[in-house]
């Protein structure tokens, strides 16, 4: 089910295309949110802190793969908009083997260096074995994370944002059921929560791969294209590497913040683990809208419809600001109740720390919303390197301020460093966009 994004009402086209992507990514968040809820409620604060810290590590490593798939998706959508189906399929084949190879290598590195990685993260001794158990199991499913994201970005590039949603919905439901069975029923602890997630990833990754091969014959590359793979490596590598660096730098910065948070003890770790899940869930629609905007931009840029790209940019900025302002108000007002979803109300200190985080960062979601749009815009117009620059500014500011100020003034400075980084990156991104348009004019 392909959909051409180069015609029709700009606002309506983007919203209809983005809606399944937003819902799908919210379902994807349910993987770890379900773990967090059940672990926090049934296994205690120590297990919650371990799973939360492991989630940050998992997000960083899988972000490398997601970035590679995201970057290659920009190439597919460009050629789809250009009506060059042959070149699109050649790019697909090259990307599959390139990213698949990186996935296998990453798996080997993680399993070989797991103890070194946990030591670098400064995981407290009382949480070390819990986190190691969770990480060891969770990374058994990394190849299926690659499969889901590869085929998901491929289908989205040709305008099909609905099919990935179906597979995520099924796997999220399975994840919830298995979490309850493994953790509550069988008492398998954090390993059971990880196993539930891995089985769900197998369903989503394997399922969407089989569907695409059987139901989308027009996306199957021919054997003759294997000979042309080398011709496409440079282009795929440029887009994929830039997006992967952008994603991994972003999550590496978060990983460094996690290391600093860990130094403040179990209560802060547990609060941060719960608050980050709420945080991610709250601004995830803006992130996926930015990804949808990127595909819209790439298809129209490939079709030579630059005025439609400009109109889409204006509409996207308005939509994002309205949504993020609304979510900021909700999170600010409901912060204590949101924390109590994951944390026992009796744990007053953990809830208080989490509420403070949400009321500082949550008031500034417009900053991250605009940044997601900028990432999408620069990927879509063939300047993926600029997304890396913006990420370095955002995360560099965050990490630098947090490490300088938090040891002296407390954990609150970690929370304030995050929106400051967003604002600086936004200013840079819009300034560069205006500068490029002025030069072109």
Q: Which helices and strands appear, and what pairs or packs with what?
A:
Elements: H1 10-42, H2 45-82, H3 85-112, H4 114-120, H5 125-138, H6 142-157, H7 163-185, H8 189-215, H9 229-262, H10 266-302, H11 306-342, H12 348-361, H13 365-380, H14 384-409, H15 412-440
Would you kindly provide a written description of the structure presented here, covering whatever features stand out?
This is Probable multidrug resistance protein NorM. It comes from Dorea phocaeensis. It is a multi-pass membrane protein. It is built from 15 helices and no strands. Helix 1 (10-42) runs parallel beside helix 11 (306-342) and helix 3 (85-112) runs antiparallel to helix 6 (142-157). The longest helix is centred in the first third of the chain and has 38 residues, at 45-82. It is an all-alpha fold. It is globular and about 60 Å long. The chain has helices at 10-42, 45-82, 85-112, 114-120, 125-138, 142-157, 163-185, 189-215, 229-262, 266-302, 306-342, 348-361, 365-380, 384-409, 412-440. The model has no long low-confidence stretch (mean pLDDT 85). It has one domain (10-440).
């Amino acid at each position: 089910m392909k959909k051409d994004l180069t015609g029709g009402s700009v606002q309506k086209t983007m919203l209809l295309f983005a809606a399944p992507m937003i819902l799908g990514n919210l379902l994807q968040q349910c993987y770890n949110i379900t773990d967090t809820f059940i672990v926090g409620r049934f296994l205690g604060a120590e297990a919650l802190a371990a799973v939360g810290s492991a989630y940050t590590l998992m997000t960083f490593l899988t972000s490398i793969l997601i970035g590679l798939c995201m970057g290659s998706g920009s190439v597919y959508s460009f050629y789809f908009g250009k009506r060059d189906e042959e070149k699109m399929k050649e790019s697909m084949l090259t990307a599959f083997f390139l990213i698949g190879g990186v996935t296998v290598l990453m798996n080997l590195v993680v399993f070989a260096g797991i103890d070194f990685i946990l030591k670098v993260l400064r995981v407290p001794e009382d949480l070390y074995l819990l986190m190691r158990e969770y990480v060891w199991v969770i990374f058994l499913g990394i190849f299926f994370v690659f499969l889901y994201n590869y085929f998901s970005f491929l289908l989205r590039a040709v305008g099909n944002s609905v099919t990935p949603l179906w597979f995520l919905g099924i796997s999220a439901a399975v994840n919830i059921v298995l979490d309850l069975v493994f953790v509550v029923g069988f008492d398998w602890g954090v390993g059971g929560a990880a196993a539930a997630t891995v089985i769900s990833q197998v369903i989503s990754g394997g399922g969407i791969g089989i569907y695409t091969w059987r139901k989308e014959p027009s996306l199957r590359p021919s054997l003759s294209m294997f000979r042309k793979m080398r011709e496409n490596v440079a282009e795929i590598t440029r887009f994929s590497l830039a997006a992967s660096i952008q994603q991994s730098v972003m999550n590496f910065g978060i990983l460094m913040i996690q290391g600093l948070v860990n130094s403040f003890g179990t209560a802060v770790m547990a609060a941060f683990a719960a608050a980050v899940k709420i945080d991610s869930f709250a601004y995830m629609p803006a992130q996926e809208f930015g990804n949808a905007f990127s595909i819209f931009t790439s298809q129209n840029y490939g079709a030579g419809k630059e005025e439609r790209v400009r109109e889409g940019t204006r509409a996207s900025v308005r939509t994002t600001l309205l949504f993020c302002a609304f979510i900021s108000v909700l999170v600010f007002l409901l912060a204590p109740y949101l924390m109590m979803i994951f944390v026992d109300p009796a744990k007053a200190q953990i809830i208080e720390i989490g509420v403070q985080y949400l009321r500082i960062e949550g008031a500034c979601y417009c900053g991250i919303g605009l940044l997601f749009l900028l990432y999408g815009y620069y990927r879509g117009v063939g300047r993926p390197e600029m997304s890396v620059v913006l990420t370095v500014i955002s995360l560099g500011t965050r990490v630098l301020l947090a490490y300088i100020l938090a040891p002296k003034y407390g954990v609150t400075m970690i929370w304030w460093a995050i929106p400051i980084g967003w604002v600086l990156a936004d200013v840079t991104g819009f300034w560069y966009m205006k500068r490029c348009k002025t030069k072109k004019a």
